[in-house]
């Protein structure tokens, strides 16, 4: 079976981070993962495509994303025709800041962002423009100490940004949800155990002693998503993982992940992921290599 390449970065235990600033004519590195966090900035990349977990997005002229350790990712050429692609990649160890530092009140937003990055985070153009000059500065600073301070500044400013969106689904990335509501966690745990079976609204409402109508309002208020969207996204994450890593047929995956109709599965998958299950699998396979 094809596997995602595991990259061994040049970081040693004595290094703070690894930085590469390069101009290139094409994207040619295959789908890969590594233990380190990665902050990746690209410009002159219109038409290229970013793959992070089960997220596949075509890019505009700028892209800035942070990817947590262990999540597969790649930037591919797709329809990009520029020959002056500029990419700044920063990789740093999960223990760079340390749990004790991140636990401080002043670092809370940074802690939250790094936790979210295990799903991958992409920042919008307004956020990129705010930090554009600082991303250039960190490549020009000669002192390692001041480079480290500049990285902290960039990460902190990004942690305060509201102009971002999450990339991979939690079920694909194998990341646990972290709701602060005990009742929401109880429902999420039930759905995670039973996502491949029929799940009735009444059963979920009964779990936390609410009427179905009250429960639907409560869940949407607490999570920002309807219960049906949550279940669909969870099932699609598991389906995407099977498409990427297994030889099961699309029909088998459809029923294995709780969808009861193949045409409905194909329609929902394309609406949510931007491509059919077949194309999604092809995109992943062509970016994988044997390791």
Describe the structure.
The protein has helices at residues 99-102, 108-116, 125-140, 144-159, 170-173, 182-194, 201-207, 212-223, 227-245, 250-256, 262-273, 277-287, and strands at 5-6, 17-24, 32-33, 37-43, 49-52, 55-58, 62-67, 73-76, 85-92, 121-123, 164-166. It is an alpha+beta fold and 291 residues long. It has a 6-stranded antiparallel beta sheet, covered by helices on one side. The chain has a 3-stranded antiparallel beta sheet with strand order 6-5-8, with no helix packed on it. Helix 3 (125-140) runs antiparallel to helix 4 and helix 7 crosses helix 8. The mean pLDDT is 91.
Radius of gyration: 20 Å
Q: Taking all residues together, what is the mean pLDDT?
A: 91
Bin the helical content.
40-55%
Quote the beta fraction: 15-25%
The strands making up the biggest β-sheet line up spatially as 2-9-4-7-10-11
The biggest beta sheet reads:
6 strands, antiparallel
Oligomer: single chain
Compute the number of helices.
12
User: How do the SSEs run, as a string of H and E?
Assistant: EEEEEEEEEHHEHHEHHHHHHHH
